[in-house]
Design goal:
It comes from Mesorhizobium tamadayense. By secondary structure, the protein is mostly helical. It has helices at 2-20, 23-31, 43-68.
Length: 69
């Protein structure tokens, strides 16, 4: 029974991959707002990225000074 279940799952996964890769599906996804690419990074994300870079810079300095000890 387990072998049959595994084969069914493998066939299902193969079918899903095939259908997602069709041109019709790609065209449909491009029309949906959630899948559209934004031309610019929203300010909220820019602010978060800036914050992350600052934090990584501080941690990077601390980590390198720890290695010297």
């Amino acid at each position: 029974m387990n072998g049959n279940k595994g084969e069914r799952r493998a066939r299902l996964a193969k079918d899903i991959r095939r259908q997602v890769g069709t041109e019709a599906t790609k065209r449909l996804l491009r029309t949906l707002p959630v899948f559209r690419l934004e031309k610019e990074v929203p300010k909220r994300f820019k602010d978060l990225l800036d914050r992350l870079e600052r934090l990584e810079g501080v941690e990077g300095v601390e980590a390198s000074s720890d290695r010297r000890r």
